[in-house]
Specification:
CATH superfamily: YVTN repeat-like/Quinoprotein amine dehydrogenase
Structural class: mainly beta
Radius of gyration: 20 Å
Largest sheet: 5 strands, mixed
Shape: globular
Helix content: under 10%
Strand order of the largest sheet: 1-28-29-30-31
CATH class: Mainly Beta
Strand content: 35-45%
Length: 482
């Protein structure tokens, strides 16, 4: 992911679990060395905050540190919307792409960096449940997204004559010639030539250049859907369908072609806590040399899923390693990838309030949310990979690793009934920091109780100054020091 369904259950407030208020200090000492990160794409905003997954390689890692060791505060910004995407431009202003609870019309918010409050908003055309979730900031701090009318938009912000703020469409390009009626763009990412790669739920991939108006597309094999976002690196665009992982490249005029295709075990059915049958991964570029040596996804094998690692240049499989064995083995989230390490979070059994129309039934029909995180390292000689640790952290967001402070940052969900794995609208949510060397949780900070704070496996963005903006089903939580 996170391709979170964009409207919540009824919000019911409950009493907070007092134990969640206890905060432990993080372990002292130097941060472990992780990296390198994928190279910065010159057509995006700042590294770590320009895309939902941090960068166009979807590393879910950032060069920015989290809040640090001081006392933490949190503030819930009520936007009456689910906010899966919160990005931060070079000017320091967060931009959130949200879907209101009522009407479900995608809305862009410009947020106040000091408080998280909305300074301006702009609605865009409504599409499918999962369409319009993914977006990125370009090198001009413009939000690049595709709306429900299949139009590529660049949305900018500026001061008004009265001293306020406004959001406006600076440039647009119709993709209707490439995206069929009834289909919708699910993922997009720029390449190193400034073109925008896109992929649709129906399995169309292509490039669009809104400087020239050129749009080129390719249909993947019939029956293959794209239900997650896509990633780009200098070598090309990585796309994971419900059947296979692809690396695509573009000719000089932008015409896309398949460099390699690798099928995976898509399992017998969708698992509870997943939104489609197949991988839940946005493909992740990572590697110890260039930052994009490898591409990784998690398959949908039953009962235990596997982390699959491929060489970016040839598509040769480096390894297949069973993961998430301690908790529930199913993931709807993009892995963290940095250096030689990959981290995978379980979403098995997570209670989504809504599913896509074509999601199909899951097997089993339901399951408890046990949680789980796994770390896998690629061997230096590429002879395989090793599972380093496996735990049962109940992460309710897409985790993010900071190469600056050497910690994994996420949100955890605590059951209202102690010592169980059940979920309810009275569960509590806490910010958590995890040591990536051991998998041990080193600090937590209680945020709130009830579905008002449900992070629904959405991504948190670490901004300059150690501020974290975490989307929830009702808005954004701003976490900071002091």
């Amino acid at each position: 992911m996170p391709r979170s369904p964009l409207f919540p259950r009824a919000a019911v407030l409950g009493a907070a679990c007092l134990l969640a208020l206890v905060t432990a200090a993080p372990t002292a000492g130097a941060a472990p060395a992780f990296g390198p990160l994928p190279p910065h794409n010159p057509y995006t905003g700042p590294q770590g905050t320009a895309t939902m997954h941090g960068d166009t390689g979807s590393s879910d890692a950032t060069p920015l540190p989290g809040p640090g060791t001081g006392a933490l505060t949190s503030r819930r910004v009520a936007l009456q919307s689910a906010c899966p995407t919160v990005l931060v431009g070079s000017d320091g202003y967060p931009v959130a792409l949200c879907t209101p609870i009522l009407g479900q019309v995608p809305t862009v918010h410009l947020l106040d960096p000091g408080t998280g409050a909305s300074l301006a908003e702009l609605t865009i055309a409504k599409g499918s449940l999962l369409g319009g979730v993914y977006a990125y900031l370009d090198d001009q701090d413009q939000l690049v997204a595709v709306d429900g009318d299949r139009t590529l938009l660049r949305i900018a912000h500026r001061r008004t004559a009265s001293g306020g703020w406004e959001l406006y469409v600076a440039r647009s390009l119709s993709l209707r010639q490439a995206v069929p009626d009834g289909d919708a763009v699910t993922g997009l990412s720029p390449d190193w030539q400034g073109r925008v790669w896109f992929a649709t739920g129906g399995g169309v991939v292509g490039t669009a250049d809104d400087r020239t108006g050129a749009v080129h597309a390719l249909s993947l094999p019939e029956g293959e859907r794209v239900d997650n976002s896509i990633s780009t690196a200098p070598a090309g665009a990585a796309v994971a369908t419900t059947h296979a992982t692809y690396l695509l490249t573009a000719a000089e005029d932008g015409t896309p072609g398949v460099a390699w295709r690798r099928p995976y075990d898509r399992g017998p059915a969708r698992k509870p806590g997943q939104l489609s049958r197949g991988t839940g991964s946005t493909p992740t570029f990572f590697g110890p040399r260039t930052g994009t040596d490898y591409v990784t996804v998690v398959d949908n094998a039953a009962p235990t899923e596997n982390l699959l690692v491929y060489r970016t240049d040839t598509g040769a499989q480096v390894c297949s390693v069973p993961v998430l064995k301690a908790g529930g083995s199913g993931s709807e989230n993009s892995p963290i990838g940095t250096g030689s390490s990959v981290f995978v979070a379980s979403t098995y059994g997570y209670p989504y309030p809504a599913l896509p129309d074509d999601a199909g039934t899951s097997s089993p029909a339901s399951a408890d949310f046990k949680g789980g995180l796994s770390r896998v390292d690629v061997r230096a000689d590429e002879s395989g990979c090793d599972l380093k640790w496996d735990n049962t952290v109940r992460s309710s967001a897409v985790p993010r690793l900071s190469t600056a402070d050497g910690l994994i940052h996420t949100i955890v969900r605590t059951p209202v009934v102690p010592f169980t794995n059940t979920t309810s609208i009275l569960d509590s949510f806490s910010y958590a920091e995890i040591d990536p060397t051991t998998g041990r949780t080193v600090r937590t900070r209680y945020l709130g109780t009830s579905s008002l704070f449900d992070t629904l496996q959405m991504v948190g963005s670490i901004a300059p100054g150690g501020v974290i903006y975490q989307g929830t089903v009702t808005g954004v939580v701003r976490i900071a020091n002091g």
